[in-house]
Amino acid sequence: MTVRLKILGAYARIVDIDGKGGDKSMKEKERLTKRICLAAVLTFSLTGCGNKSLLDPGNPVSLTVWHYYNGSQQAAFDSLVEEFNTTVGREKGIYVQGYSQGSVSDLETAVRDAIGGKVGADPMPDIFSSYADTAYEVEQAGALANLSDYLDEKELEKYVDSYIEEGCIASDGTLRIFPTAKSTEIMMINRTDWEPFSQAAGVSLEDLETIEGVTKVAQAYYEWTDSQTPDIPEDGKAFYGRDAVANYFVVGMQQLGVEIFQVENGNVTLNLPKEQIRRLWENYYVPMVKGYFGAYGSFRSDDVKTGDLLAYTGSTTSAMYFPDQVELDNGSHAIDYIVTTAPVFAGGEHYAVQQGAGMVVGKSDEKHEYAAVEFLKWFTEVEHNLQFGCVSGYLPVTKEAGSREKLDQVIEKYELEVAPKTYDCLTTIFDELEGMTLYTNKSFQNGSAARKVLEYNLADKAAGDREAIVEAISQGKNLEEASAPFVTDKAFEEWYTSFCNALNDAVGEQE
What we know:
- The protein is of the alpha/beta class.
- It has 20 helices and 17 strands.
C-alpha cells in the first residue's frame, strides 16, 4: 500500500494511491488522519483562546440557541440551560435562551432562510444544532465562527478525537462544529417473541452478530411463521428492519474495507466496487423483496409495536421508542427487550456509525462567539453531558464520560431516574467502545444529495419490487417463483448501473 500525504498549510488529507484499501491500511490511514486533523486544530487554537475580559456580569451577553429537541429531550436541554443561566452564566455574564425549531428539516430550513435573508425569517441564531452536511453548506457561505480561536490544547484533548475530526470542515482544517451529543447504532430485539422462535428454529443471539447471520435468521423466521398457518401459503412474517439505509451503505462498505465517499479538499471520489456493493445488495434488497426484512411504519420501532418485525437496527436514541407491548388486531401482549451492538459484515472490521448533530456558532463578534463557546464547554462537561444523555440516549462527547462507571456515578449523585432501555443502550456501547471504530464520512459539496441516494434508491426499489412479488404470490406462485426475476445477476447489474449513475448525478461537478 502506497500512501501520499498532501499538506495544505496545517491541514492534510491521506490519499490512497493504488486503491486497494485493505482493512489494515485503512485503519492506519484513519489514525494518521485523526492525528493530523487534531494537530491542525491545535495549531490554530494556540493563536487565541478568547478573552474573559470581554464578559461583564453586570451587562450579560444574550445568546439564542436553535435546536430540534422535542419532548423529554427538550425538557432535559431546557433544564440544563436554566442551570447554566443561574450559575456559571450569571457569574460570567452569559444568558442563554433555547428554541426548538421542531424537526431537523425544520431547523435546516430556518437556518437557510436566516442566512439567505428571506422575508419574514428570524435573525441568525448565535448557536444552532447542525449535522455536518448542513454545517458545511453554512461554512461555505462564510457564516460560521472559527471555534479553534476559543479552545486551547488542553480543552480540545478532552473530547473524543473522531468527534473533533468530524467538526474540522473548514478548508484550513480548523474547527467549526462543536461536538455536544453523539449516537451510534444498536440492535434491539423483542425478547418475548424471539425466545420461542429461537428455541424452535435452533438459532441464537450469536447468529445475529453478522449481517449475513441476520439474513439467515430472518429467512428461518419467515419460514417458521409461515409454517404456523399451513392452510395459507407464503404468509411468513419479516424478522428484521433497519432505520437509516444510508448508514448501511456508508458503514457497511467501511466494514468491507472501502470508503464509499473519499473526500479531499471538499471534493469527493466515489468508490463503488461491484463485489462489495453486491454483498450489500444481497443482504438488504434480496431479503427485503422476499419478505424476510421489512419496513412499514415511519420507523422500525413502530413496526415492532405492530408485530410486523421482531428486531431492528437503529440509533441509540431510538431506545425510548422501543415498545413495551405488541399491539395486534386480535389483542396485545407485553414484551421484554434485548439490546446488542449492531451486526457487522462477516470478516469485516468492526466499524459503527458515528452520528448526531453538534452545535455550530454563527460568525458575529468576538464577545458573542466567546460566550457561545463558554456555554458549549459547560454543556459538554462530564456530568452535564451525561445528564442529557441519560434522558436523550445520546453518547457523551468527552473521553472521560464514556464509561459505565462514570454514568453510574452521575446517576447516583443526581439521583436520576433513567429508563432501563436508555441505560442499557448507553452501557452496551460503553462496554464495546474499545472494540469498535466509530466512523462518519467527511463533508463535501452536494453531500446531502448523495446521502439521499443511499437512503432511498435501493430501499424504494425494494419496496416496489416487493409489491410485485406479493401480487405474483396472490396469483398462485410460490415465493421462489415470484421473486426469481428480481434476484438474478442481470437484475443486480441493472440496478448497480442505475445506482452508480444516480450517485454521480447527485454529486455533480465538484468545484
